[in-house]
Amino acid sequence: MPDYHRSGGKGKDKSAGNKKRGRPRKTQNTGINVDESTKKIFRVALEKYYLTTMENSLSDAYKMMIREFYAKDFYYENGIPKLVLEDEDKLPTLTQFKYWYQKEYDVQHTTVARKGRVKSEECYCRG
């Protein structure tokens, strides 16, 4: 019998190489591999936009991260500033952002950061 339970490297991070990992996309763009620098951007964006008392959604935090870290330039159109973003092939996806959030943060840490220690303890006492 093969030892399939010993194969794969479960729980270990894979190194980001030149070839795109994961399932091929149905759209034309290829996307990026999430490397250490991208993970650092994810952490900063999560701490700054999601794990706050403002209680932004994950998709809002993702949009704010894209605006802050992946904008190449901006221009004015009718007096309103418009951002010029990187190509879609050079942007992480919302799914990648959510995956790394779920991998690195637990529910208790998130609740304390968003609600405060006292209110989070009330939530756990009731539930």
What features would you describe in this structure?
It is a single chain. The protein is mostly helical and about 130 residues long. It has one domain. About 45% of the residues lie in helices and about 10% in strands. It has five helices and two strands; from the N terminus they run ααββααα. Strands 1-2 form a two-stranded antiparallel sheet. A hairpin with a 2-residue loop joins strand 1 and strand 2 (about 80-85). It starts with about 35 loop residues before the first helix and ends with a helix. The relative contact order is 0.13. The mean pLDDT is about 80.
Key terms:
127 residues
Q: Can you list the strand order of the major beta sheet?
A: 1-2
| Strand tally | 2
Shape type: flat
Rg from alpha-carbon coordinates: 19 Å
What is the residue-averaged pLDDT?
82
Strand content: 5-15%
Total domains, how many? 1
Q: Sketch the topology as an H/E string, one letter per element.
A: HHEEHHH
Q: What is the quaternary state of this protein?
A: single chain
Count of alpha and pi helical runs: 5
Helices and strands, with pairings:
Blueprint (H helix, E strand, L loop, with lengths): L35 H15 L7 H12 L1 E7 L2 E6 L8 H11 L2 H9 L1 H10 L1
Antiparallel strand pairs: 1-2
Helix pairs in contact: 1-2, 4-5
